[in-house]
């Protein structure tokens, strides 16, 4: 598997290449459809008037189709150009430890991705108020796991519901002993939705090294789900030949938890999908400790997420002392 952690300039270049490719493909598709429409609509021996009338219809139509296909690129470019509110920047600086370890170019890219996420997705408080901090922490939770995938689009999600507390299987929250769910990725009628408990979302970022972060946990499930199933095998990031070694490693690590020889959250024993999500929380919240205690797992997650938070953290600390 060859997915190295990527630097900010190469990530930006990869995104630009991807956008160029989308523009070229959209242009080719629009041209092909235009030519076909012309061929079908022209009589056998077209006159100048025939050409002129058809072209007058087809050229604007083709151009409109091209603009339709590339509209999201243009919307995103406009968001990247728009100023990022100072208040939002302060929240990221104060509340998101991951953001604090990024270099200035990476921070710029992180802010752009957060901005795009907040413009494209709806975040709704259910029986609770939501402020900028809640919104920024939801967006940060979404961007952290895919920060190594430039140009990633969270098509799997449309809306995030923020609940006032943890909840049960029937989405009930108040005064219930069985209200133990902190977050979930929706399915069935709730497809393309996510629920997060507000206190746990905030707590996840305020205790940065406890290896619990419900936002990162749920968006890791969503990344896992990008191949259609939440099964702990993120096929979008794992080449086919790496799946077997990954599952063998996961089962070894799960066995260590079962025998009491691991500091990974025992909730990971539920199944491979939950193991992947709790391992991701650990990987992003306490990378140096995971690197030390679980070097093989760290290395595999570094390849899956295409990021190396431990090196990033070491660099940020050394930068702090050389200032
Ligand atoms: Zn889970």
Walkthrough of the structure:
- It is a single chain.
- The protein has 323 residues and is mainly alpha-helical.
- It has 14 helices and 4 strands.
- The chain folds into 2 domains: 8-78; 83-322, 3-Layer(aba) Sandwich (Collagenase (Catalytic Domain)).
- It has helices at residues 8-41, 48-69, 71-81, 86-95, 97-100, 104-120, 132-146, 198-206, 214-224, 240-258, 272-285, 287-293, 295-305, 309-322; strands at 122-125, 159-163, 183-185, 193-197.
- The chain has a 4-stranded mixed β-sheet with strand order 1-2-4-3.
- Strand 3 (183-185) and strand 4 form a beta hairpin.
- Helix 4 (86-95) crosses helix 7 (132-146), helix 7 (132-146) crosses helix 8 and helix 7 packs across helix 9.
- The protein is elongated and about 85 Å long.
- The two termini are 37 Å apart.
- The structure holds zinc ion (ZN).
- The site of zinc ion has 4 residues, from helix 9 and helix 11.
- The site of zinc ion (ZN) has 4 residues, from helix 9 and helix 11.
Into how many domains do the coordinates divide?
Answer: 2
DSSP helical segment count: 14
Tell me about the biggest sheet? 4 strands, mixed
State the order of secondary-structure elements, H for helix, E for strand: HHHHHHEHEEEHHHHHHH
Tell me the number of strands.
Answer: 4
Global outline:
elongated
Q: Cofactors and ligands present? A: zinc ion
Layout of helices and strands:
Layout: H1 8-41, H2 48-69, H3 71-81, H4 86-95, H5 97-100, H6 104-120, E1 122-125, H7 132-146, E2 159-163, E3 183-185, E4 193-197, H8 198-206, H9 214-224, H10 240-258, H11 272-285, H12 287-293, H13 295-305, H14 309-322
Parallel strand pairs: 1-2, 2-4
Antiparallel strand pairs: 3-4
Helix pairs in contact: 1-2, 4-7, 6-7, 7-8, 7-9, 9-11, 11-12, 12-13
Bound molecules: zinc ion.
């Amino acid at each position: 598997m060859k997915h190295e952690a990527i630097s900010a300039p190469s990530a930006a270049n990869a995104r630009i290449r991807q956008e160029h490719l989308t523009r070229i493909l959209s242009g080719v598709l629009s041209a092909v459809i235009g030519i076909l429409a012309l061929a079908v609509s022209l009589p056998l021996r077209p006159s100048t008037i025939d050409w002129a009338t058809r072209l007058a219809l087809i050229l604007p139509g083709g151009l409109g189709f091209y603009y339709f296909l590339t509209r999201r690129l243009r919307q995103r470019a406009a968001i990247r150009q728009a100023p990022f509110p100072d208040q939002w920047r302060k929240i990221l600086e104060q509340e998101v430890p991951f953001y604090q370890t990024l270099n200035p170019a990476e921070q710029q890219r992180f802010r752009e991705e957060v901005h795009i996420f907040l413009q494209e997705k709806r975040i709704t408080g259910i029986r609770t108020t939501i402020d900028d901090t809640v919104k920024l922490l939801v967006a940060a939770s979404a961007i952290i796991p895919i920060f190594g995938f430039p140009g990633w689009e969270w098509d799997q999600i449309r809306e995030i519901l923020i609940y006032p507390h943890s909840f049960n299987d029937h989405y009930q929250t108040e005064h219930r002993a069985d209200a133990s769910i902190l977050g979930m990725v929706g399915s069935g009628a709730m497809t393309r939705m996510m629920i997060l408990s507000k206190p746990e979302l905030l707590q996840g970022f305020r205790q940065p090294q406890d290896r619990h972060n419900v936002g990162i946990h749920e968006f890791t499930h969503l990344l896992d789900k990008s191949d259609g199933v939440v099964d702990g095998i993120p096929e979008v990031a794992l080449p086919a030949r790496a799946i077997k070694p990954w599952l063998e490693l996961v089962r070894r690590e799960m066995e260590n938890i079962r025998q009491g020889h691991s500091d990974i959250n025992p909730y990971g024993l539920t199944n491979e999908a939950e193991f992947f999500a709790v391992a991701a929380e650990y990987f992003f919240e306490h990378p140096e400790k995971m690197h030390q205690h679980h070097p093989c797992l760290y290395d595999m997650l570094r390849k899956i997420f295409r990021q190396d938070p431990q090196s990033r953290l070491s660099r940020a600390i050394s930068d702090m002392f050389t200032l």
